[in-house]
Amino acid sequence: MLRVWDPLVRLFHWSLVGSFTFAWITSEGRSEVHQWAGYAAALLIFLRLLWGFIGTPYARFSQFVRSPKSALNYLLAILSGSEARYVGHNPAGGIMIVVLLLAVSATAFSGWMMTTDTYYGEDWVQILHSLCADAVVVLVLMHVAGVALASFRHRENLVRAMITGRKRSANGSDIA
Questions:
Q1: What percent of the chain is predicted at pLDDT more than 90?
Q2: How many independent structural domains does the chain possess?
Q3: Does any domain span residue 176?
Q4: Does residue 7 sit in helix, strand or coil?
Q5: By C-alpha distance, which of 52, 45, 35, 60 is closest to 15?
Q6: What is the pLDDT averaged over residues 73-93?
Q7: Measured distance CA(137)–CA(64) in Å, rounded
Q8: CATH number of 31's domain
Q9: Structural domain range at position 57
Q10: Of 24, 50, 93, 102, which has the fewest beta carbons less than 10 angstroms from its beta carbon?
Q11: CB-based contacts of 122, cutoff 8 Å, min separation 6
């Protein structure tokens, strides 16, 4: 077994799950705890962005952010049952991470906008915030489906890997 996900990546992942879930649950009534959950999510995103440049090898964006063409080719390979196993994130997973980071950031930013004098009470900002949050939920469902599919296809429990940090070492045609 190979240590892939460092403690900071795992703590970030599960803390973002928790802060977004808590913000979602407390979204009615614009409560202060909802705002703090949003600020926590924004802080987590900021820290993850830093770690994406200075962190451990598998945490770095340079390791897993690939071109949209690469992600499309990977998705097409899934359809034909010929996708490679990646020790880190596969190309589709890398794109999903970037999109999720952007969507959660947009949700947090639009939520913050609603607290400012300029945008307080503006319907369009509230609608934008709700649309961003709904988009995150859809993206999370897609992410979970992708994790389930990759876990099944490569016979590897990726949820456990995000808890323990360990994955099976590369062999044969696997991509490290």
A1: 90
A2: 1
A3: no
A4: helix
A5: 45
A6: 94
A7: 23
A8: 1.20.950.20
A9: 2-167
A10: 50
A11: 114
